[in-house]
UniProtKB/TrEMBL annotation:
PANTHER family: NARDILYSIN, NON-CATALYTIC MEMBER OF PEPTIDASE SUBFAMILY M16B-RELATED. Gene3D superfamilies: Metalloenzyme, LuxS/M16 peptidase-like. GO terms for biological process: proteolysis. Keywords: Hydrolase, Metalloprotease, Protease, Signal, Zinc. Residues 36-149 form the Peptidase M16 N-terminal domain. This is Insulinase family protein. InterPro entries: Metalloenz_LuxS/M16, Pept_M16_N, Peptidase_M16, Peptidase_M16_C. Residues 1-20 form the signal peptide. It comes from Sinomicrobium weinanense. Belongs to the peptidase M16 family. It holds the Pfam family Peptidase_M16_C. It comes from the Bacteria. Transmembrane segments: none annotated. SUPFAM superfamilies: LuxS/MPP-like metallohydrolase.
Length: 440
C-alpha cells in the first residue's frame, strides 16, 4: 500500500508544506503530437527527463501477451547511434541513473542527470523514439532476460503469483486478466515483424508525453526539445478497444496452488471503478482505515489482538479502465481461511454501518496530506506525477489539485462507498494454497 504513517511530531510540518508546495509547470504540444511538460526547479543541480508511452499490457494481442513489458527491456538494446550494450554505460559515465517500468496502462522511461547533461538525456530519449534497433539478436537477448525475471519474481518467489492468479479470476473479458509480464510461450512464438509492428504503432510521439523537471532554463530546453524531438514523424492515430466486464453478482470462489509456499493465504477482491472516478479516491482512504499501520483496524484485530493472522493488508489498486480492491491475510496457528474471511467481513460491515470517528478521520487526512507531500518532494517524483496525471487522467493540474479531492471526502462518503463496492456478492475469494506434493 502506498500510504505511510508519519510520526505525530511531523504532522504540522506536513500540513504547512502542502499549502506552500505548489508545482509550477508549463505544457504544450509539438506538431508531431508529442505532449511536453516542463517544470523548472533550480534548487539542486539535477534534472529528470522522462517519457511515458500510453501502452501497457492491456494493449496487447491476447495471443501475444507480454509485448509491452518486453519492450521496456528491448528499447535499451541500442539505437542507430548508440551501440548495443552502451546505453547504461553512457548514463553512468555521465553521472546519471535511469530506469523503466511497465504497468497494465503505460510504459515509463526516465533518466536523472546533473544539469549539464540535460541535452544528453534529451538526445538519448529521442534516439529511443526515432532510431531504436530492433533485430533478432536483441529480441533473443531480451527474451532470456525476461524469462529469468519471470523465474525470479514469479515462478520461484513465494506468493509471486498472487497478482496473476487474482486478476486472472477477477476479469474475464478485459486484458487486465493476464499478467503484465505476459506469456513466455507467446514471446517465443512472436516474429520479428510482430515486434517491429508493435513499436511502429505505439512508440510514437503522438502516443507519449515528455517531461523535463528540475534545474533547467525553459527557453533553452524548448529549443533542444524542438531540435531533437520535432523531426520525429507522427504515428498513425491509435484506435483502442474498450472492454466492459459483466458485473459480479455472486461470490466467486477460486483456488491457486503455489509450490513455493508453506502458509496459505486468502485474497478477497472486488472490481472497482477507474482511477479517474471519485469513488476510487474514497477507496484509497478505506484502505488506510483498514490496514495502514499497526493501529489500523485489520492489523490491530487480526494480528495484534486476536493473533489469527501473521499478516493482513488492504489496498485499492486503481487502473485506467477498472480497479481492484484487494484484501489479503495469512493465517496464524490453526486459523482457517474462512475464519479470516469472517473476521475481515466484520470490519467491513462496521465501515458500512458506522461512521469512522472524528479522530480517525483527522488522522486519515493527515496521512494523505503527508503522502501528497512525499510524492512531490523531488524532481523524480514530480516528473512521474506530471506524466501520469496527463497521460492517464487527462488533467495535469491534478499534481496540485488531487489533494483537494481527498480533503473533500467525508466520513459519510467513506461509509457509502464501502456499502457500494465491498459487498460479498460482488467479490472474488481466492484460496492461495501450497501445492500438494510441492517441494516446499
Amino acid at each position: 500500500m502506498k500510504k505511510r504513517l508519519l510520526p505525530m511530531a511531523l504532522l504540522a510540518a506536513s500540513l504547512f508544506s502542502v499549502t506552500a508546495q505548489e508545482v509550477d509547470f508549463e505544457e504544450y504540444d509539438l506538431d508531431n503530437g508529442l505532449h511536453v511538460i516542463l517544470q523548472q526547479d533550480n534548487t539542486a543541480p539535477l534534472v529528470t527527463t522522462s517519457v511515458m508511452y500510453h501502452v501497457g499490457s492491456k494493449d496487447e494481442n491476447p495471443e501475444r501477451t507480454g509485448f509491452a513489458h518486453f519492450f521496456e527491456h528491448l528499447l535499451f538494446e541500442g539505437t542507430d547511434n548508440i551501440k548495443k550494450g552502451q546505453w547504461f554505460k553512457i548514463v553512468t559515465a555521465n553521472g546519471g541513473k535511469n530506469n523503466a517500468n511497465t504497468t497494465q496502462d503505460r510504459t515509463y522511461y526516465y533518466e536523472v542527470f546533473p544539469t549539464n547533461n540535460l541535452e544528453l538525456s534529451l538526445w538519448m530519449e529521442s534516439e529511443r523514439m526515432l532510431h531504436p534497433v530492433i533485430n533478432q539478436i536483441g529480441v533473443d537477448t531480451q527474451n532470456e532476460v525476461v524469462k529469468e525475471e519471470k523465474r525470479l519474481r514469479m515462478d520461484n518467489q513465494p506468493y509471486g503469483q498472487f497478482a496473476s492468479a487474482l486478476f486472472g479470476n477477477l476479469f474475464s473479458k478485459h486484458p487486465y486478466r493476464w499478467p503484465v509480464i505476459g506469456s513466455m510461450e507467446h514471446l517465443d512464438a512472436a516474429t520479428l515483424d510482430e515486434f517491429l509492428a508493435f513499436n511502429k504503432k505505439f512508440y510514437v510521439p503522438n502516443n507519449a508525453v515528455l517531461v523535463v523537471a528540475g534545474d533547467i532554463d525553459k527557453e533553452k530546453t524548448k529549443k533542444m526539445i524542438a531540435d531533437y524531438f520535432g523531426p520525429i514523424p507522427r504515428g498513425k492515430d491509435i484506435s483502442r478497444t474498450h472492454y466492459k466486464e459483466d458485473p459480479i453478482t455472486q461470490t466467486k470462489r477460486a483456488r491457486f496452488e503455489d509450490p513455493n509456499i508453506q502458509v496459505p493465504a486468502i485474497l478477497t477482491a472486488y472490481r472497482t471503478p477507474s482511477m479517474k472516478e471519485r469513488d476510487a479516491y474514497v477507496l484509497d482512504m478505506i484502505s488506510s482505515v483498514l490496514s495502514d499501520g499497526k493501529s489500523s483496524r485489520l492489523y490491530k484485530k487480526l494480528v495484534d489482538t486476536e493473533k489469527k493472522a501473521m499478516e493482513v493488508g488492504a489496498f485499492n489498486y486503481s487502473l485506467e479502465d477498472y480497479g481492484a480492491y484487494i484484501i489479503y491475510a495469512l493465517p496464524l496457528g490453526g486459523t482457517s481461511l474462512d475464519d479470516l474471511v469472517a473476521e475481515i467481513d466484520e470490519e467491513i460491515v462496521k465501515l458500512q454501518t458506522e461512521l469512522i470517528s472524528e479522530r480517525d478521520y483527522e488522522k486519515l487526512q493527515n496521512q494523505f496530506e503527508n503522502s501528497f507531500v512525499n510524492a512531490n518532494s523531488g524532481v523524480e517524483g514530480i516528473a512521474h506525477s506530471l506524466a501520469r496525471y496527463y497521460l492517464l487522467y487527462g488533467n495535469t493540474k491534478l499534481i496540485n489539485e488531487e489533494i483537494e479531492i481527498y480533503r473533500s471526502i467525508t466520513r459519510e462518503e467513506i461509509r457509502e462507498v464501502a456499502k457500494k463496492y465491498l459487498k460479498p456478492d460482488q467479490r472474488l475469494l481466492l484460496d492461495y494454497v501450497p501445492k500438494e506434493g510441492g517441494e516446499n
